[in-house]
Amino acid sequence: MITARAAASFDPQGRSVASARLFVRDTLQGWGFADIVDDAVVLTSELVTNAVVHAGTSAEVLCLRTEDGVRVEVADRYPERELPLRPPGDRPYADPDRENGRGLMLCAALATRWGVEYTATHKHVWFRLDLPDRPVGTRSAGPVVPDRLLPLADTRVRVAVLQVDSDDRVSAWNEDAEHVFGHPASKAIGRPLAELAAWPQTPGTGTGIAEALRLSRWEGSYGIRGADGRVIPVYGSHLRVRDAHGDPSIVCLLVHDDERALLQTPVRAPAAEGGQLTEARPADPFEVFIGSPAPDDLDGLLQRTVERARDMLDADAAFLLLATDDETELEVRATTGLPSTRQRFARVPVEAGASRYGSARMPAVHEDLTAVPGAVPLLDGTGMRSVVTVPLKVEGRLTGSLGVAAENPGRYSNAEALRLQFAADRIALAVESARLGELERLRRGSLSFLVEASDLLAGTLDRDQTLALMAQMTVPTLATWCAVYTIADQSSDPYLSYVLHEDEERIDGLKALLSRVSPPEPVREAGARTWREAATAVGGETVVLPLLARNRVIGMLTLGKPSGEHFRQEILELADDLSRRAALALDNARLYSERTAISRSLQRSLLPPGSPAIPGMEVEVIYRAAGEGNEVGGDFYDVFPIRDGAYGFAIGDVCGTGPEAAAVTGLARHALRLLAREGLGGPAVLERLNAAILDEGARSRFLTLLYGELHPREDGSALMKVVCAGHPLPLRLRPDGEVVPAAEPQPLLGVMDDLELYEETVTLEPGDVLLCVTDGVTERREGSRMLGDDGLTEVLTTCTGLTAGAVAARVLRAVERFAAEPASDDMAILAFRVPQPRTGD
After folding, report:
1. Who contacts 4 (Cβ-Cβ below 8 Å, separation ≥6)?
2. Rounded CA separation 506/519 (Å)
3. Which positions fall inside the PPM-type phosphatase domain (predicted)?
């Protein structure tokens, strides 16, 4: 009875043979048929070789599972190439010394049954392998070994069982998981596994956790962040399954990394290439590793290297370190069997002592580390007693160091060192090639990161937003937490301006801890340096990078990682590049803020200090300057007392907008006040102002101006004397809704030397409104439409009975609604109204 089936097709290419072997191995191991996997792989390899190499067609492989064995069929599209039937006692199917035909010999020798079937288009060669008879419950077994060689485990072994749904979120969390990691099930279920896992890879390189969760099986080391924030090294075995409804999920079995023997699959030697039978011989685990397809990422290659090195010398621990570019330090990149404090990216010196045994450039054997404390800094406090280390060299250059260690003294001699050196020599070039590939990917990722960071920083001139961007770009990409200190000037102490942690609930606590520590000392030298005071207070590794801009220190960027984690040199170099860009952006934001503050202060000095209260009159002013950050533009207004019972008012428009127009605005407003208080009439005031504008020469701007004097009367009316020099005419609104111009147009200022201006008199009766505006109101546009004088007159007609404030507000609202786009010109509205006497007064 067939209980499961799996099928795959392979192109007529040489590499398809290896792919077919891998397909059959994964399928049978997934079905639990480990006892017959090797025989099935050998037979499949030979039959697929016949199809894709000798027959030159594609191959179709079908695996059928039964209760007591498996049947594998290999079909090709060359039915004319028949297989001869061999009568009993006849010659064998092939000569063992010939290249072809050996697949049939192997089928006859290894398979329980085999055969050939033909169709019009295909030839099927099949074989069946029965499961061996064995005691009930036995799947695999190892030899009897002395108790002292058995793997170590806690008195109470705990296996954390997690189930992860198709969205990569935790859906089940057993009691052992709660005990090992500290998270109760109620807090863990529903969270993405990526939030809990500290995946052993550099961002942008290697297999990520998302990819690993898509594989049918996965096994290896990584970390889980406990409830206290510390990373707990674990060894995991993942199996992707599906439920009765067909929905996939991943079952994860996790144990402490030093108890990996509970879950680790025994290493099996691969079948010989092409399925050829070879003479049986003891397999060296490192040779098995070299002969198998190597992982395509550096982290996977290094981890497999230390695991095979440990197994090869029957060690308790193994480690591999890579040299920095200057060959002065070694960086921990992979470990197995060491405590969690020996995490990746910790650094040790290449030269740890004066003797040859203190240099990582030479093989070294230490029979008892207690006799030479500090000889191998990485192993201090780990309980390891004997160790052998060998260098990894490429073309005579030190690229790394490989070591294995044991808890018992005297375990290793020169013979083991030679064996390990032989293995290191074989793997050194592959490691260096993978390292260079990782560096290239990291540099490309760094360049992309810096380009994006520069775009974001260039997109704002706000200081607070720049600080937030700096922190958000570093956490969690470069560090677990970040703090930014700023320095206002050279005499000021650094100030803690911004703090960010990847866990938002820890931000306040982190800020409190840093507040109790003296700020880092500002240093001009570029590059990261260790900040021990903060590391002691917060825990973990802490580095400080100066924020240098325009040859001065404007702050410090502080990055931190939790205990047991370390910064990679490449990450620190990337952070240094980022700090330079961030410092310039922060200084630009500072300069912009200072310039804006100065500009606004100067602009406010050009505005009238305030409108005086005029007895018997309502006065309302609305002013809008065009341009970001401008409070004053080319349009201006003023209402001021001249003498008792007389008030001056003006509304004008300087050609252009911005600071140049504002300068002429200041000249006009101050000159009007001064000249009017000298007792000059309206025409004389404007003629002298015209001369002052012309005296500015190339800096002059022509100016339209409505100037007048206001004299309230005892009968409730108001006498106005006005001069309209090229300005939009003032409009008078009568109580009956009639709107008429209140003046005649005259020449504008700043163009001609000799002006002949005259003054006009207007008497406002109770209920009358006088509206004065600049051309920013009348020339408001929407496409080809313009509000114009007629549109303003129509709006004013609807303002009968309104106060001066309501009239000005209605006009502004009409202007804003006339077009969807914001106004591009300065705008001023000045409204006067003579109130009507109240009924009964």
Report:
1. 31, 64, 65
2. 20
3. 617-834
Q: At what angle do helices 569-606 and 463-474 cross, to 10 degrees?
A: 170
SS3 524: coil
- What stretches of 50-184 show up as alpha helix (H) in DSSP? 102-110, 175-181
- Asked whether the beta carbons of 638 and 611 are under 8 A apart, the reply is no
Interhelix angle 37-49/16-30, rounded to 10 degrees, is: 150
How is residue 413 annotated by DSSP? -
Look at the block and give the residue holding tokens 């309209």. Answer: 724
CA dihedral 663, 668, 674, 679 (to 10 degrees): 170
Residue scoring higher pLDDT (562 or 764): 764
Rounded CA gap, 683 and 691, in Å?
A: 13
Q: What is the pLDDT of residue 293?
A: 53
* Residue 85 clears pLDDT 80, i.e. is over it: no
Predicted confidence band of residue 624 (pLDDT cuts 50, 70, 90): confident
Q: How far is CA 55 from the centre of its chain?
A: 52
CA nearest 369: which of 316, 415, 320, 332? 316
Q: In angstroms, rounded to a whole number, what is the distance separating the alpha carbons of residues 735 and 257?
A: 92
Q: Is 415 strand, coil or helix?
A: helix
Read off the amino acid at residue 65. R
Cβ contacts of 394 within 8 Å, gap of 6 or more: 428, 429, 432
Residue 406 to residue 386: CA distance in whole angstroms: 5
Q: What gap in Å lies between CA 651 and CA 673, rounded to an integer?
A: 13
Is the CB of residue 122 less than 8 Å from the CB of residue 79? yes
Pairing between β-strand 317-323 and β-strand 397-406 as defined by DSSP bridges: antiparallel
Which residues face 252 on adjacent strands? 162, 238
| pLDDT, tens digit (0-9, with 9 covering 90-100), for 401-439 | 999 999 888 888 888 888 888 888 888 888 888 888 888
Q: How far, CA to CA in Å, does 392 sit from each of 315, 321, 395, 396, 443?
A: 19, 9, 10, 9, 24
Predicted pLDDT at 633: 59
